[in-house]
Structure formats: C-alpha cells, structure tokens
C-alpha cells in the first residue's frame, strides 16, 4: 500500500483536483490580463495591438522606479524591523503569567483586526503638523526643531506610512511566532535548563532554530503583504506629494484608472506578479530547506 501511494502517478492523481482548481481560479484569469497588457486599452475597448510597447513605456517611466523604491522600502521595514520585533514580542508573551499573556495576546491582535481606513485616520491625527500627537510631544520637550509635516515632506512620508503598516501587523506576526513556540516540546527547554543555559542561549540555540518553518511562512507573508502595500497610501497621502509615496500597486491603480491607460496598468500588474513569484521561489528555495521533526 505504501509503495502504491508513493508513486508519481498516484501523487499526480491525488494532487490533480487541487491543481485543476488552482489553474481555473488562479492561472486562467491571468491570461486575459496578459493579453490586455499587449494592447492599447482604455478599460472599455481595445485600440490596437502594441506588443511590448506598454512594457517599454512603463519601465522607462521614472514613476515606476519611484514606486519600486517605495515598495521595497516598506518590505525592508517589514522584514528588518517587523520580524525581529515580532519575535521579541512572542518571546515576551511566552514568559508571562497566564493572565498577562491573555492580555498581551488580545492587545497584539487588536490593530490587525481594525480596518485600514480606521487605522490610517488615527495615524493621520498623530501626524497632523499643527496639533498632532508627535509634533505636540516634540514641542513639549523642547525639540521643536525636530517637528515635521510628516506626510507632505519627501524625506519623511514613506517612513511615516511604513511605521503605520509596521504597527498594524507586528502583533499578527507575533501571534504566529507564539503559536510556533507552543509546538516546541517542553523537554528541549528542560534539558537546556539542566545544562545551565540562560534565556538568551535557549532562544538562540533552541527556539529560533526550531521555528525555521514558521519564520519562512512569516517571511513570505510579510514580504508579499508589504509588496501589495496600497490601502494606507490611498487613505493617508493618495500617493503624494506628487508621486513620492506611490507604491507599485498604487502606480498600477493610478495608471489604469486615473489615466485610463489600462494596457500600461496591466503591464505593471504582470511585472508585479512575476516579481512576487520570483521572491516566493527564492524564499522557498533558500530559507528553511530542511524538514524539522520533533
């Protein structure tokens, strides 16, 4: 029986329903979009086949590369700050008493379940240059020279929006790490304590190595979620000032709907999909390749 189920034919038979559904609902809908990206299209009708001209025009546009720079800035904030902070928060929750742990778990998830519009409006009030929370605090402690118009200055607008995104989803990632920590057998920690390991050594030698599959999942989730960053920008700055805070997804929306160049907008979407697939492949290929068994 085991020999039969381990053959390539049987694997294909059992996987074919899921593969069929994936093809119908994920792959097939992309084909009309790829075809549209090869045309001059206004969203209602095609005005002729233009081949790769849309892709050439998109790549030659400075706004396209500004959007990429902003997108990967958000990805960097999410990975370099978000994942370590999420891991620290998960480790912090693990060592709390049950009552405090329940409180911190609820507090960690609260921002993630809020609407992006609600979160953005709250932070718009924080960033308001005249009476906003941040500038008011800086003025009260004598640092008025540090105040900024956070969402209208080119140097501060993207870090400011990135901070909002980081705050909203850091708790969600922490809960994923916390769930992974709870699956690690207690016997590993007991053996480490008998050997005299301290908290930091236990984290570095046991917890983090045994969370590699969870870390890979959070890495993919955070990266692709950051790549699709759009709603916060739409609510907080509408891509401004100018095109300074546009991301790739916002640039795609702006090109398709605000300028009615659906062919170019779809070309941006196709490029974006290829980038996401490539990043997912690289993470799957090089991160946590060994299967762990407790």
From TrEMBL:
Query: Transmembrane helix as a keyword?
Result: yes
Q: Where are the transmembrane segments?
A: 12-31, 72-95, 107-126, 157-178, 214-233, 267-288
Matching Gene3D superfamilies, A to Z?
Answer: MetI-like
Where is it predominantly found?
Answer: membrane
Question: InterPro entries given for it?
Answer: ABC_transporter_permease, MetI-like, MetI-like_sf
GO cellular component terms listed in the entry, alphabetical order: plasma membrane
Keywords of this entry:
Cell membrane, Membrane, Sugar transport, Transmembrane, Transmembrane helix, Transport
- Membrane topology classification: Multi-pass membrane protein
**Can you cite a GO biological process for this protein?**
transmembrane transport
Q: Where in the cell is it found?
A: Cell membrane
| Domain of life, per lineage | Bacteria
Q: Which residues form the ABC transmembrane type-1 domain?
A: 68-283
In which family does this protein belong, per the annotation?
Belongs to the binding-protein-dependent transport system permease family.
Name of the protein in its database record: Multiple sugar transport system permease protein/raffinose/stachyose/melibiose transport system permease protein
Taxonomic classification: Bacteria, Bacillati, Bacillota, Bacilli, Bacillales
């Amino acid at each position: 029986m085991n020999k039969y189920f381990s053959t390539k034919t049987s694997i294909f038979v059992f996987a074919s329903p899921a593969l069929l559904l994936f093809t119908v609902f994920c792959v097939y809908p992309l084909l009309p979009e790829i075809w549209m990206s090869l045309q001059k299209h206004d969203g209602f009708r095609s005005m002729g086949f233009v081949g790769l001209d849309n892709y050439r025009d998109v790549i030659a546009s400075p706004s396209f590369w500004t959007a990429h720079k902003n997108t990967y800035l958000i990805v960097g904030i999410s990975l370099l700050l978000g994942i370590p902070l999420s891991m620290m928060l998960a480790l912090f929750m693990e060592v709390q008493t049950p009552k405090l742990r329940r409180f911190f778990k609820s507090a960690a998830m609260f921002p993630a379940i809020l609407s992006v519009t609600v979160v953005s409006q709250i932070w718009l009030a924080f960033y308001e240059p005249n009476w906003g929370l941040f500038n008011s605090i800086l003025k009260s402690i004598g640092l008025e020279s540090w105040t900024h118009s956070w969402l209208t200055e080119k140097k501060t607008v993207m870090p400011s929006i990135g901070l909002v995104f980081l705050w909203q989803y850091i708790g969600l990632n922490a809960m994923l790490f916390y769930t992974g920590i709870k699956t690690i057998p207690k016997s590993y920690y007991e053996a480490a304590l008998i050997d005299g390991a301290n908290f930091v050594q236990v984290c570095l030698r046991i917890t983090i190595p045994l969370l590699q599959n969870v870390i890979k999942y959070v890495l993919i989730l955070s990266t692709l979620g950051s790549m699709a960053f759009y709603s916060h920008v739409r609510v907080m700055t509408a891509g401004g000032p100018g095109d300074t805070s546009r991301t790739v997804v916002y640039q795609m929306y702006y090109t398709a709907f605000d300028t009615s160049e659906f062919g170019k907008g779809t070309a941006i979407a196709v490029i974006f999909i290829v980038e996401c697939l490539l990043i997912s492949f690289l993470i799957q290929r090089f991160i946590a390749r060994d299967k762990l068994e407790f």
